[in-house]
Design a protein that fits this description.
Blueprint (H helix, E strand, L loop, with lengths): L1 H21 L2 H17 L20 H11 L9 H18 L8 H13 L33 H11 L3 H29 L6 H72 L7 H26 L19 H10 L4 E6 L7 H21 L5 E7 L3 E8 L22 H11 L3 E6 L5 E8 L5
Parallel strand pairs: 1-2
Antiparallel strand pairs: 2-3, 3-5, 4-5
Helix pairs in contact: 3-4, 4-5, 5-8, 8-9, 8-11, 10-11, 11-12
Length: 457
C-alpha cells in the first residue's frame, strides 16, 4: 500500500515536471512572480529586504506602492528580456532608497535580476556559435549563429566573425566590460546620492554592497559558462554520432553497391567480347546482368528499410538481411560473372546475432568483389568455419589465371574507392574480431576474418 502511494506520488511529480517544462519561459517566470506576491506583502516577510542607505523611512503612499511593485513584477520577463528587467528593477530600487521608503522583501528582485543578466544576458557575439550564449535550454540566443540544438559549421562562425568585424570572443569581452563599466558608474552615482541624502554608510560599506551585487551577477555568469560547457559536450556528442552514422551508411552502401555493380560491369564487358564470335552466349550474359541488377535492388531495399528512421514500412515488406546461409547464392552469382569460385563450409552452423552474420557475409562479398576487379578469371576459394565461440571466414585467390566459362575482356580494371577492406576491419572490430588481408605464400591473395559468434569479446 505504501509503495503504491509512493509510486503514484512520484508519477504525479514526474507528470507535473513535464507539464511545467512544456510551458513557455515567459509563462513560467510569470507564474513564479505571481506566487511571490503573498511573500512580498505578508506582514511577517514584507519588512525583510535589502536596504543600502539606512535613511530615515517615510510611510508608504501610492508612488511607494508602485515602486514596490516595480521591484518584482518585471521578473516575469527576467529570461526573455533580462537587460530590461534589470533596468526597471534597479531604477525602482534606487528611487525607493533615495526616497526613504521602508525595506521590502520585493527588493530581492534586484539580486534575481542581476543573476538573470549574468545567466541569460544577450551579449551579441553574432556567429560565435557557442552554447554559452544560450539564455535558457528552451530557446536559442539572440544574435548568435546557433538556434536551440542547431549544429552549424565553421562557415557560420567565420561568417559571423566577418560581419562583426572582430573575433567573437573579443566582441563578447568588450560587451561585458562596457556593461560592467556602465553599471559601476551608475552605482557610484547612486552611492553619492545616498551620501548626499545623509546616509551613514561609509565607503567600505558601499564597496561591500557592490561586491555582493557583483557576486550575484558572477553567479549567473558561472551558471552560463557551465551550460556552455554542457552544450559544447552535447554538440560534440551529436557531431560524433552523426559522423559514425555517415560512416556506417557509407560502409553499407559500399558493401551493397560495389559487388553488384562490379559484377554487372564485368558481365557487360564479357558480353561485348563474345558478341562477334559467340552471339548465342550474349543472352546468358545479359541474363546475368539482369540478375545482378535485381539483387542490387533487393539489397538496397533492405538497406533503406534498415535506415528508415520513421519505421513507416512494415517489417514483412523488407528483404531479409544477408547471412552466411545465403553465401551459396552469392558464390553462384559471382561464378555467373565469370569468376571460378568454390565454397566450402566446415562445422555446424549455429544461431548467431544477425549483425555477426551480416559481417561475415560482407567479408565474403568484399573479397569476391576484389577478386572480380583485380584478378578476373583466377580461381577463388571461400571457406567458412563455424566454431563454438567464433566464425572464421577465409577467401583466397590463386595467382595463376584459369580458363573461365566466359573469357575476360581486355579492358581497364574496375576501380573502387579503396575503402572496402578498411570498412571491413571496422565492421569486424566492432565485435572484437580481427581481419587480415594480404599476399598469400603462393603469390595469390587471402582475406581472413575471425568474428566472435556472440557478437562481442
Amino acid at each position: 500500500m505504501f509503495e503504491a502511494a509512493v509510486s503514484t506520488a512520484l508519477r504525479g511529480v514526474r507528470i507535473g515536471r513535464e507539464r511545467w517544462a512544456a510551458l513557455g519561459v515567459g509563462t513560467r517566470d510569470g507564474v513564479l512572480a505571481v506566487l511571490l506576491a503573498p511573500v512580498v506583502f505578508a506582514p511577517l516577510t514584507a519588512p525583510v529586504g535589502a536596504e543600502f542607505g539606512d535613511l530615515p523611512t517615510r510611510p508608504y503612499d501610492l508612488p511607494g506602492l508602485l515602486l514596490t511593485a516595480a521591484l518584482w513584477l518585471p521578473l516575469t520577463v527576467r529570461r526573455r528580456w533580462p537587460g530590461a528587467c534589470l533596468a526597471v528593477i534597479a531604477t525602482a530600487f534606487a528611487i525607493r532608497e533615495l526616497a526613504g521608503y521602508p525595506a521590502t522583501f520585493a527588493s530581492v528582485g534586484l539580486y534575481v535580476a542581476l543573476y538573470g543578466v549574468g545567466a541569460h544576458g544577450a551579449w551579441r557575439d553574432r556567429g560565435a556559435g557557442t552554447a554559452g550564449d544560450q539564455g535558457d535550454g528552451d530557446h536559442g540566443y539572440r544574435g548568435t549563429g546557433v538556434r536551440g540544438g542547431d549544429v552549424r559549421g565553421e562557415d557560420a562562425r567565420s561568417e559571423g566573425a566577418r560581419g562583426q568585424g572582430a573575433p567573437p570572443v573579443v566582441a563578447v569581452g568588450v560587451g561585458v566590460v562596457v556593461g560592467v563599466g556602465v553599471a559601476s558608474v551608475l552605482y557610484v552615482l547612486f552611492a553619492i546620492g545616498l551620501h548626499g541624502r545623509g546616509s551613514p554608510q561609509g565607503i567600505s560599506d558601499f564597496v561591500l554592497i557592490y561586491a555582493v551585487l557583483a557576486c550575484c551577477w558572477a553567479g549567473g555568469r558561472a551558471v552560463r559558462s557551465w551550460r556552455a560547457a554542457e552544450e559544447g559536450r552535447r554538440r560534440a556528442g551529436v557531431e560524433a554520432a552523426m559522423a559514425r552514422e555517415r560512416a556506417r551508411i557509407a560502409r553499407e552502401l559500399h558493401d551493397v553497391v560495389t559487388h553488384h555493380v562490379t559484377a554487372m560491369v564485368v558481365q557487360a564487358d564479357a558480353a561485348q567480347f563474345v558478341l562477334a564470335d559467340a552471339p548465342d552466349r550474349v543472352a546468358t550474359g545479359l541474363e546475368a546482368i539482369s540478375d545482378s541488377g535485381r539483387r542490387a535492388l533487393t539489397d538496397l531495399q533492405h538497406l533503406l528499410g534498415v535506415l528508415n528512421a520513421s519505421g513507416a514500412g512494415r517489417e514483412g515488406d523488407r528483404a531479409p538481411a544477408p547471412s552466411p546461409g545465403t553465401l551459396g547464392e552469392l558464390v553462384a552469382h559471382t561464378r555467373a560473372a565469370g569468376q571460378p569460385v568454390r565454397l566450402t563450409e566446415h562445422g555446424e552452423r549455429r544461431p548467431m546475432p544477425s549483425a555477426v552474420e551480416l559481417a561475415a557475409y560482407r567479408v565474403v562479398q568484399e573479397a569476391l568483389t576484389n577478386a572480380l576487379k583485380h584478378a578476373p578469371g583466377h580461381p577463388t576459394h571461400v571457406q567458412v568455419r563455424y566454431g563454438h565461440e567464433e566464425i572464421e571466414v577465409e577467401v583466397t585467390t590463386e595467382p595463376a589465371p584459369a580458363r573461365s566459362a566466359v573469357p575476360a575482356p581486355r579492358r581497364a580494371p574496375v576501380r573502387g574507392g579503396g575503402h572496402g577492406l578498411v570498412g571491413l576491419r571496422e565492421r569486424v572490430g566492432v565485435f572484437g574480431g580481427e581481419l587480415r588481408a594480404g599476399a598469400a605464400a603462393d603469390g595469390g591473395f587471402a582475406v581472413l576474418a575471425r568474428i566472435p559468434a556472440g557478437g562481442g569479446a
